[in-house]
Fold each of these.
Amino acid sequence: MSNQKPAIPKGTRDFGPEEMSKRNYIFNTIKGVFQKHGYAQIETPAMENLDTLLGKYGEEGDKLLFKILNSGDFLNGIDPLKMQASGANATSLLLCEKGLRYDLTVPFARYVVQHRDEIKFPFRRFQIQPVWRADRPQKGRYREFYQCDADIIGSTSLLNEADLISIIDEVFGKLAVRVKIKINNRKILAGIADYIGQPDKIIDITVAIDKLDKIGMDAVMQELQLKGLEVQSIYKLEPLFAITGDNRAKLSQLRRILQNSESGIQGIEETEKLFGYMDTLAIPSETELGISLARGLNYYTGTIIEVKALDAEIGSVCGGGRYDDLTGIFGLKDVSGVGISFGADRIYDVMNNLNLFQAGSKTASKVLFANYGDKEVKYCLPLLSQLWQKDINAELYPDPVKLSKQFSYADSKNIPFMVLVGEDEMKEGFITVKNLFSGEQQKVSSVNEIIEIIGQKN
């Protein structure tokens, strides 16, 4: 038998109890804010029919879909010549009927169409589940990761965008992560394409300029040349991304430049209105108009949102935007929606690196009952049960081993209190509670007194 340890696929991670406690702190914080703002939870399957997913994320996104081979002899009945003649997507559909979801938004659009008779619009939903992408693993980029999504569908009001930005600000405020919220509008990007005389190249333009912060203007211009854009058109882009000033000043300058683009002006007016709502809400987080922000996904049609952590070198920790007809691809036309997605794995990495997790979030149990033997266990079990009924996390050491081993166990789990009930305690009718952090011991006579001591510590 090989001595080599088993391994997991690259781009995936195991999470032990301490890590899960931290992750649940993130999930519960996000979930609590979602619920406070009136969003209801749903879940969808890990796998979707492949034709539900293909073509929704652009050519690059399709390449990153994990596809599931059909059960049994998946080559049975498949003509090899037909496979050779087919493109990658067509071949996938011959061999695979299902795929792992790439995000939570397209499955949500499918859900809305499938359950439209049960849904009351506008529909506010949130979803916290894993997604999968066949990407090259690197720092902050995983093949399996959790998304925490909130969407409002069935309303075109920009109040929805303002609500989601308020959620972003509140979540990161509670997590103590300093962020910058970057905002743009897909219509402004369409206006830029109009301005440089290349409206038919809008996808190529947005894909390239979305990389501006990463690769710089020269590399963006080179990429656009390779995509077939005229040189004079590319050079007209440069001054657009040199616009300075606060958000209002940038929008004012853009209005002058894009004055002949109906789409561009509409995007500017929507963004001005959104910033007005944000001013009224007094959003504390730093916000910035990001003229180059495009967020690659083809289904965005209006507001685009991206959030960066200010104190960590990592990609975006949250993003989203407006999609005017995503449900239309499934047969339900003219249903506009807007949503955001928190990247829980990146948030976890940021908080871990910055030591932002609260000490209490690492502790599962608050109290450990020592095990002296059968008689003592029978005495302790009703006390343990009463603590559980009071929603106190507590446990009883399962074996009557040396007390030093039980103390070591408590220390390894960062348990703050130990209840000691031996022969003397049972005979005299009291309970010894030991604070394992300070070493202080107290004698009490009831569970309520135990709870009072724990409350003083916390």
Amino acid sequence: MAQKPNTPKGTRDFATLELAKRNYIIDKIKTQFKHFGFQAIETPAFENNDTLLGKYGDEGDRLIFKILNSGDFLAKVPQDILQAKDSAKAAAYLTEKALRYDLTVPFARFVVQHQNDLVFPFKRYQIQPVWRADRPQKGRFREFYQCDADVVGSKSLWQEVEFILLYDRVFNNLQLPSVTIKINHRKILSGLAVLMNAEDKLIDFTVALDKLDKIGKEAVIQELLDRGISQQAIDKLNPVFDISGNFSEKLTQLESLFQGNRSGLEGIQELKFIEAQVAAQGLRATTLRLDLTLARGLNYYTGAILEVAAPASVGIGSIGGGGRYDDLTGVFGLKNISGVGVSFGLDRIYIALETLRLFPETISESTQVLFVNFGDTDAAYAFDAVQKLREKGVIAELYPDAAKPQKQLAYADKRHIPMVVFVGEAERKNQVFTLKNMKTGEQKSLTFAELAALFVHEDIA
């Protein structure tokens, strides 16, 4: 018996309607990318290992899909490593490339490689798939699309303001309610590490703190202890867990804890500027909230950090995120190039819109009209009309076979094609078309001009 085919775990097929819905989201995002002045680029699906590894922290590195070298990939592995079954050492001989983990690091590589051809500040957007060897669950896949926008070559905080407004405009156009844009600052996190006398544990501290919403305060404290941070240091962090109020009130309370703490105070001043300018422009569909535990656990953020939370009723967590990464291109040899960017989680946005039934009913890209085939002579007359309708932007089809009319009507019904046209000897003789509304069953005879006007809404002579 043949094995039942299936997709690899964490990947999916997309049927026609699903793809139409995904394209609807992409079009909304892409429109705003263009309105904000971003230019499109694309990068390869896989990169050299040394481009990706070491850019996402230990946890991120473990989730990178590595690609086996072509040919006899075991031939280059020294015998002593093979016999020792040391997979870590063997990996250096087995694989030289990996599927991209995100779009940001490949973008940094792109900027360095093409720096002489770019005009800075350079604003790019990129909509392509990425891969992560993660545990699949609701809203989390091993292959998924990211929709990224970045600016490199400017340290101005106006860029952060623009990205927050970009998020707001996209979700407003998607009519997705109750979206929260959470913001924090890497300098504030560094300031907290100074407050705890744990500067050397900054990465361990931020990785654990970033999990607060998922595992709770007690579990975070335990993880901090497990990562070598003392209880005395953790006790100094406790006041931060108790900070409450609106955006400005939280910063004021934090400011009192950071007296003499240069890094923390700089982060506070930058967030004050960003919040004030966003407030001056106004948010249409989102709420900006300061989240002092937001860390996003990635090594390359150096300034503001953003994460977008879906409506709580959807239950999928973040649907976007990003931040400033001043020194990312430095790892590829290009120093002093500041960058900031955000990403939209296409798959999770899809889930949110589907769960809340927010996709428009007219989103399907289905055929608008099907011409019934009564044989080659009638089909030739119908086919000429099909081509003319297509030239006017109408999605039209001729049924390919001269099958029984009932079969052709059943096809139209299953495809949700709203209109069917019959063309027989009488129609050809009178130069007309018989149109049937599949929903109401109503039929009427129309000239081509009248038929076309129903779909293209124009006065056709």
Amino acid sequence: MTELWDLLDADCRPTGEQVIRPGSADDGVHRFFQVGDFHQVVVGALFRGDQMLIQRRVDDKEVWPGLWDLTAGGSVVTGESSRLAMRRELNEEVGVDIDFGAYRPAMTVAHDRGFTDYFLADAPQSLSLADLRLQASEVQDARWASLDEIIELHAAGRFINYRPGFLEFIFALAGGNNVYGEVRHTERL
């Protein structure tokens, strides 16, 4: 199957060109994503109080196999907004459906392959671990974890390579305030 990504410029604007995701089938029309190209990624973190829902990647993932990670994430495909992609990824990976249509990313981070929008949200009150539907090809386990537990997993080499300060920042944002300390980041627009 061919998965297409919208190519972005250095200011995160679509160039109008679509590229093929590495590992996808060649459609004979589009070129493959390559070094120097930029695309959009989304990552979401669901919180319940002072705990985040984390997931453990399957052991045969190409990148960070078997490591714990934030709740869900992946690439934005051609024609999607980051909000729609976040809803799709969260639903695909852990079986939770949250409409992100009225949310903005808590932050956008530029990196060598593009831009990542980070969405932070409160988990539905009724959500239990038994309710999760883990995507067998992506996720092998999920659990609630505090920042201290995630930092311990990170120190033991069992969490993907986010910097500890970045993980602390995500928890600080989820604690009810944006970086200015004024407005809850998950408020609806």
Amino acid sequence: MNIIPLPAFRDNYIWLVHDGHHALVVDPGDAEPVEDALRRLDLRLGAILVTHHHADHVGGLARLLAHTRVPVFGPAGEAIELVSHPVVEGDEIRITAPGIAFRVLDVPGHTAGHVAYVAMDIEPGLVFCGDTLFSAGCGRLFEGSPAQLASSLGKLAALPPDTRVYCTHEYTLSNLAFARVAEPDNAERDAYAQHCETMRAQGAPTLPSTIGRERAINPFLRCDRASVAQTVSAHAGRALQDATDCLAALRAWKDGF
């Protein structure tokens, strides 16, 4: 199974999964790069996964479905017109062309009904997590609460450490710049930053990351660590109640960074 990023807009990635004959696309905010890739690689579209309702993730659906009707899986808790197969946590979906199966996680916070798709029967594992978890960061709280986001990030962090993380924005370098401020002393983060700077200088994506790497370098997954909580508390000018309070203050800090 091949997984390739299709750049879209300024910094989005649409993920295309294919077996050499059939393709699955994840969060097609724009139809054009998908159509170009299908033609270039001589692939037939077999299914679409959607993580949440934002336009840069669903804007290409109508044009793609005008050419061929394929199943579109998306969150049951969000009103996305062209989703034909609404999903919720615990659902297992099996896509025959290409042959791949996923289990669904509810990961609200960025949006109220956001979902993630964890591949089954693939080693090492992988997750398509939309805008909930980024490399060295996480999504803004547009519709959910800090408690919801904390729970969602906890679900993703609990995946096996070698699980590959396919998020949908190339935000890594800017997230790492903030991570250096939020947790100044993190040697593994600094080494990863050098790697990512090299990749971007070569025009290559920084993604996918892994769950293990994110646990080690992502401050939003480290709000239970004194190295993060002390810095956040100092910036907020108050004592923090718990890790969820730390996450809320950290996210607010990042929003204005």
